[in-house]
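Researcher: I'm comparing several assemblies side by side, and this is the next one on my list. It has 468 residues spread over two chains. Same procedure as the others: predict the full complex and return the structure.
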Amino acid sequence: MTRVTAIPTATISRLVTYLRILEGLETQEVGRTSSSDLAERAGVTAFQVRKDLAYFGRFGTRGMGYLVPVLKRELMRVLGLNRTWNVVIVGVGRLGQAIANYPAAGDYQFQYVGLFDVSPELIGHTVRHLTVQHVETLGQFVQTTPVDMGFLAVPPERAQDAAQTLVEAGIRGILNFAPTVIQPRTADRGDVADPGDEWRGVTIENVDFLAGMKRLAFYTLNPHLKSADLEEQE
Amino acid sequence: MTRVTAIPTATISRLVTYLRILEGLETQEVGRTSSSDLAERAGVTAFQVRKDLAYFGRFGTRGMGYLVPVLKRELMRVLGLNRTWNVVIVGVGRLGQAIANYPAAGDYQFQYVGLFDVSPELIGHTVRHLTVQHVETLGQFVQTTPVDMGFLAVPPERAQDAAQTLVEAGIRGILNFAPTVIQPRTADRGDVADPGDEWRGVTIENVDFLAGMKRLAFYTLNPHLKSADLEEQE
């Protein structure tokens, strides 16, 4: 395993796809797979599969392929899905409540430990066994409850400030559902090039509904240009 | 412009990213950009930007770069965002309601024309000016109202059947929010390799919350492996 300094996001997205395929194979009680089989199901080349996996070590035996449960377990480990993640949701409107109740999130040990909002109509109410708290209390909350990630489901104009609140509370992973780009900067400094220290090592991932709608628009106009892949390829 | 038979999904995802960047530049009243500037902002190479754009024609002037409003308008056209899309939502629970109220969807002329569910508690109620109808009436509905796309926000175990209903009603574009893979097959035939004719030319795109959570898990564990890109690169 070579020492790598960065891994393309597309590789991580494909690992997520391979994992989903392996889970499907396991459900169908298929015991063994190969890079060509995975490649075909993911719509990429076998070379790409091997290259993606090679970032993380050697998983198969040459000419023998991969054992489905072994490769699945290894990908779970690589992705960090073999441990519990304590998650808070900031923004408990319709979208935040949908996320709190999203099926299968629990299968991967994403564990909701706190819900935060600013609306008096929501604070104090119970959603999925948790009492919605004011977002101003997040700093105190993390003193007693370790939090690994924050899911942001606030309106777009609130997203930057809410992200700042998460980051100041020491939370290093943010999944942003708002249709806006979070900048790694301190709101009152506004300096993107030199964000505050609190942003060091913070990861922001986006779940962008609009991007999905736009891709769909393109392929609905151009169904003949659809490549055979599930999610993405190069 | 060479005749192409398929365009990588990653290219389409990047066009969506470039468009978002161009919108940001326009807001900042920046009039001109270049493939290196776009590349840096999107975290890909300038070669990649030029290659992605070259699928669709020539947009810039050598050595002069691109005019922001022109390239933005061209990408909107390529992606099919210069026209109105009539959309139905199937599944009007918390998630479906969140989607119906998702900010900015209207900016791109995704126009909700119908909401469908199976729950007696929802049918007949009004959500965002539309009356929720029983999904069994979808076939009749499309007789009088043209529908381009269906957004699926049903529980995962209902997603395949709901997709079948959309496809039988003649809808060719599906955006699936359920954490499950829709197979292009007729439910009662179960034959993936030879789906029913009604599936010909149907595009399915996925908005997968779990994939975002998994990517976030990886990068929260390994912040030093984060590449500098916004969304994806090769």
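Model: For your comparison table: Helices of chain A lie at 9-27, 35-42, 46-54, 68-79, 94-100, 138-144, 156-168, 209-221.
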